[in-house]
Specification:
Protein name: Translocating chain-associated membrane protein
Region (Disordered): 338-375
Mean pLDDT: 87
Oligomer: single chain
Membrane topology: Multi-pass membrane protein
Low-confidence stretches: 353-375
Strand content: under 5%
Shape: flat
Number of strands: 6
Pfam families: TRAM_LAG1_CLN8
Main location: membrane
Length: 375
């Protein structure tokens, strides 16, 4: 009989390894405590700040929107405010739990079957999580853009600015977007990211968070949703192709990267065109000009040029590694063509030894008439 297997020792409570292994359960317990706080009147005010959307608006008797504080009706329209930070924190906790579930029950099971190295496994996990998020973002943003009529009429991106009033579903989408990129910072610790990958990942997360939060705060969330849709489409194609590459589905991966090489620059051009049309032409012709914190207007020439210039330089910065990749692939293709041409034009080796061997074999009855077998 074989020796019984020893159970792996569980790490000490609240040690680094314990937190990493059980972070989803810990965060889920914290979330349950926050939700249970709604039961008691003493803690309900605190729990509501985390669980529910804040800064709701309801119509009074005159049909004018006013804050929903102390109102019995459930608000459908909202505005942004400082309390949204607590909602983002709570949503980031929930997304960390969902992240862990997807990682354990989907991505890890697939990566084990592929037998990837540590580096490839880390990149496979990253692309798997980002692909799922990009697909969710694309589907959700298309639904909201169709619902708000922004795909039919592009002038809605700048008409009636400032867009201070936000529908509850749109506000939820924007807050979840910010929460997703906030939760990605502690995931670097939970997923034990490689040190050489951390700077690039932090840069990637920060750019998403800054631009989404900026569009939300400045009431440019409509153009932010359109730009985000174009960006996430290109990102979904890239990460999907990357997963196929790690899975050694080379033909499908090459097709995916070929599509990405077309979609990526088109997305960058469309983003710049929409940004120029909105910030320079549309908002430039609006009647309300200047910064007014009371009305939530940030339609000044200075703010618009900062937004337009930031988007312009971001697209150039994103295009730089893309161009480097295209040039490197072209060099590799030229080298492969040169090697193939060299092999076809190479002189065949002298076949003297082979001919001698064939003559010996024919004399022994191999490949020729051979000797007559005696009875």
């Amino acid at each position: 009989m074989g020796m019984p297997r020893k159970k792996p020792k569980s790490p000490p409570i609240m040690s680094h390894e314990f937190v990493i292994q059980n972070h989803a359960d810990i965060l889920a317990c914290i979330a349950i405590v926050v939700v249970l706080g709604l039961v008691s009147e003493l803690t309900a005010k605190v729990s509501r700040v985390f669980v529910f959307l804040q800064h709701g608006l309801v119509k009074n008797e005159d049909g004018v929107l006013e804050p929903a504080v102390g109102k019995d009706s459930f608000p459908v329209e909202f505005e942004r405010g400082a309390l949204d930070i607590f909602t983002v924190i709570f949503q980031a906790m929930m997304l960390a739990v969902v992240h862990a579930v997807i990682q354990e029950y989907v991505i890890d099971k697939i990566s084990k079957k592929l037998h990837l190295s540590k580096t490839k496994n880390s990149r496979f996990s990253e692309s798997g999580q980002l692909l799922i998020w990009c697909l969710v973002s694309v589907g959700w943003s298309i639904h909201l853009l169709i619902k708000n009529g922004m795909l039919r009429d592009i002038s809605m991106l700048w008409e009636d600015y400032p867009h201070k009033v936000i529908h509850w579903e749109t506000k939820l989408y924007l807050l979840v977007q910010m929460a997703y990129w906030v939760h990605m910072y502690p995931e670097l610790y939970f997923q034990k990211a490689r040190k050489d990958e951390i700077p690039n990942r932090i840069q990637y997360y920060t750019l998403h968070l800054v631009f989404i939060a900026g569009a939300y705060f400045l009431h440019f969330w409509r153009i932010g949703m359109v730009i985000g849709l174009l960006h996430f489409i290109a990102e979904a194609v890239f990460h999907g192709s990357r997963l196929l590459y790690f899975a050694e589905k080379n033909e499908w991966a090459e097709l995916g990267f070929s599509i990405w090489r077309v979609v990526f620059p088109i997305a960058r051009v469309l983003i710049l065109a929409i940004a120029f049309l909105t910030f320079y032409w549309g908002l430039g012709r609006a009647e309300v000009q200047g910064v007014d914190f009371a009305t939530g207007s940030f339609n000044s020439f200075f703010v618009r040029m900062i937004c337009l210039g930031s988007l312009f330089f971001l697209q150039l910065w994103l295009m730089w590694p893309y161009n480097q990749l295209i040039l490197r692939r072209r060099r590799e293709e030229r080298e492969l063509k040169k090697k193939a041409a060299a092999l076809t034009t190479a002189k065949p080796k002298p076949a003297g030894k082979k001919q001698k061997k064939d003559s010996e074999e024919s004399s022994n009855g191999v490949g020729g008439k051979g000797k007559v077998k005696k009875n």
